[in-house]
């Protein structure tokens, strides 16, 4: 094993699923919090909230549920039992996440989209991220380490 390999932070797959869950919870929670803070005192509060909740559940149903399922399946299928701490995303997802964060900050700082509409976008995107996090929590809770299962069957034999 070379020095670079030794320095890679590795964790069991079960914990990697929980790390992914925490990242998605943080991202979804941050967007929800920021969006709801912008809602305060805005005109048509309830209409914006209903639109955001409806849009958020639709985004979850038709996009984020598939994305989170793909990532949990990918994590469980990783070849190493102790993958890198940062492998909860693949490279494509890191690039997409970077683009989305940059776009969100740019939209907020530039004022291109009024804050009232941006708040709807934040809440709409925060909801599916937050819901998707629970798929990772569940996958981590039910994950069984194949090495431990194998050791247990050898002891019973």
Task: State the gist of this model.
By secondary structure, the chain is mostly helical. It has helices at residues 3-7, 13-39, 45-76, 91-110, 115-142, 146-156.
What this model shows, in words?
This protein is elongated. The longest helix is centred in the middle third of the chain and has 32 residues. The chain has one domain. It contains six helices and no strands. 78% of the residues lie in helices and 0% in strands. The model has no long low-confidence stretch (mean pLDDT 89). The chain is mostly helical.
Terminal CA distance: 34 Å
Morphology: elongated
Query: What percent strand?
Result: under 5%
Poorly predicted parts: none
Helices and strands, in N-to-C order? HHHHHH
Number of strands: 0
Share of helical residues: over 70%
Sheet with the most strands, sense and barrel status:
none
Radius of gyration, Cα only, in angstroms? Answer: 19 Å
What would the average pLDDT be, to the nearest integer? 89
Oligomer: single chain
Number of domains: 1
Counting DSSP H or I runs of 4 or more residues, the number of helices is 6
Query: Structural class, please?
Result: mainly alpha
